[in-house]
Amino acid sequence: MLTKRDLPRCEQFIGGKFLPSVSGKYFPLISPETEEVTAEVANSTAEDVETAVQAALHAFKHSKWRLSPELRIVTLRKLAAKLRENMPAIVEAEARVTGRPIREMRAQLGRLPEWYDYFASVAETLEDTLPPFGRGYLNYTRREPLGVVGLLTPWNHPLLILTKKLAPALAAGNAVVIKPSELAPVTINMLAELIHDSGMPEGIVNVVHGLGSVAGKALAQNKALSKIDLTGGTPTGREVAAAAGRNLIKVAAELGGKATSIVFDDVDLTAAVNGTVFAGYIASGQTCVQGARVLVSDKMYDRFCAAFVEKVSKLRVGPPLDNRTDIGPLVAKRQLDRVVKLIETGIREGATLAYGKAPVPDTGWYVSPTVFTDVTNDMTVAQEEIFGPVVCILRYQSEKEAIELANGTRFGLGMAIWTNDIRRAHHVAEQLEADIIWINDHHRIGPASPWGGFKESGVGRENGIDCYKDYSRLKNVIAKITADPFDWFDGAATDKRYS
Ligand code: NAD
User: Fold this and answer.
1) Is the dihedral of CA 126, 127, 132, 138 positive or negative?
2) Which one of 3, 73, 278, 479 has the fewest beta carbons within 10 angstroms of its own beta carbon?
């Protein structure tokens, strides 16, 4: 049973044991709230990554995990139960490390056990197939695990995103090496402890820490992997996909976004404002499907902007562990600097700063929730992923223009439509270039519901049966079940055949 405690030293988890890096070096983990060092993190090297991959390979080949769906199903359900039991300590640690308000972390992490239960059920119920083949043959398919899979994860939803990859990877019978973000390693180690306690064979799950440019790169390039699955920025996605291409292995990449909400003029103003403010400022805007661009009909633009600013001005900026906090500090100083710079760019390019002066604590990486109005689609703030509490409101004249503006970015991850007109909602949804379209809602996700970007937002799908299938490979067994004689080279055979 995990207890609430000071943040621990984060070692690597290899072959079922917590171990220091071969370098013996650590890097500091800094609190976004107090700017103090709160933990030391093992600075894993390429050598550590190789050790972890070999431990995973050994466990994959020699434990029962690969061969026993029964073991996997029981273990994953046990892990889900252990997660539920230990949730308060995990929630608190995740809020401390990321700076995200504890109320958000409670709501988000409370759902994680569903992923382990869901993928255990997929493993339990997914049937193989008997493709038609013709008389005299039994033709069937089998799904097999891939082998060792590398999982590279970001800091903004550390455990949620890892869980979306880990649950299907394990259910399908793979072994994994995880490289979490250097900014949020703590709850990954807490999960490793629970994995150990759930009775999973040692070496099936391994964790290395360290920098993306060192440990992440070494993992992405490792030749013993059968798949690499990344969630991160689009530039990282290009590098990781290139490494996977060189090694000819599967790749999945969930990348950057700049989600758009389209508000039509038939909506209830309060409902649309509540929904789009939630979309824009949850996670202090540090989420790939942040509703960063709101397109509002010219007929209600001024009314909408006034109500939006009024709502944003009431958001409470404060410490992550305070239940009343709506906006916590950003995760790292480098994020704060990036967000501040982009706000300055927005002002310089002519957007109107309609709100941006909430009082923020002196210490910690806080930035005021910010609203830009009079934004045009060519402005940097309308196009670049800011990843902070900054929302741009754009104006449109017609449904056609709204769709063009919504599709007018290089990203394609999540969009929302706010309207009471059912016909219009589905007609517009059909034309939007994004993987998930919410109608009168935002940020909804479930383990069975496919997730993965269009355009530069990524390749592959998380969640659902397709994701499970992507963590396995298909084998076809064609069995001749008659005793009919066959000798091609006696010259008598004339049947058509493939070869
Ligand atoms: P990041 O790309 O900097 O890092 C992601 C992970 O990759 C980290 O573990 C990092 O250490 C590692 N990494 C970095 N460079 C690497 C390299 N060259 N080779 C191998 N690994 C490397 O991303 P971040 O700042 O941690 O996360 C924010 C980004 O993630 C945003 O762009 C956001 O949109 C995206 N994101 C996408 C989704 C989605 O579902 N599409 C969800 C959450 C976050």
Assistant:
1) positive
2) 3
Ligand 1 atom closest to 254 (CA): 41
Confidence of residue 494 (pLDDT cuts 50, 70, 90): confident
Residue pLDDT, tens place only, 417-458? 999 999 999 999 999 999 999 999 999 999 999 999 999 999
Give the pTM.
0.96
pLDDT reading at 233 higher than 50: yes
* Order of strands across the sheet that contains 415-418: 352-355, 370-375, 390-396, 291-297, 259-263, 415-418, 437-439
| C-alpha count within 13 angstroms, C-beta hemisphere, residue 287 | 22
- Band of residue 6 on the pLDDT scale cut at 50, 70, 90: low
**How far is Cα 420 from Cα 398, in angstroms, rounded to an integer?**
16
Residues with CB under 6 A from ligand 1: 152-157, 161, 179-182, 212-213, 216-217, 220, 230-233, 236, 239-240, 254-257, 288, 385, 387, 413, 453, 457-458
CA distance 217 to 127: 37
How far CA 25 is from CA of 121, 177, 215, 490, in Å, comes to: 41, 20, 13, 71
CA dihedral (73, 78, 79, 80) positive or negative? positive
Please give the Cα distance from 244 to 255 (Å, whole number): 16
Phi, psi dihedral angles at 383 (to 5 degrees): -115, -35
Q: Compute the distance from residue 166 Cα to the ligand 1 centre, in Å.
A: 16
Average pLDDT of span 227-236? 98
Is pLDDT at 486 greater than 70 in this prediction? yes
Catalytic residue chosen out of the listed positions 78, 165, 217, 311: 165
Whose Cα sits closest to atom 32 in ligand 1?
233
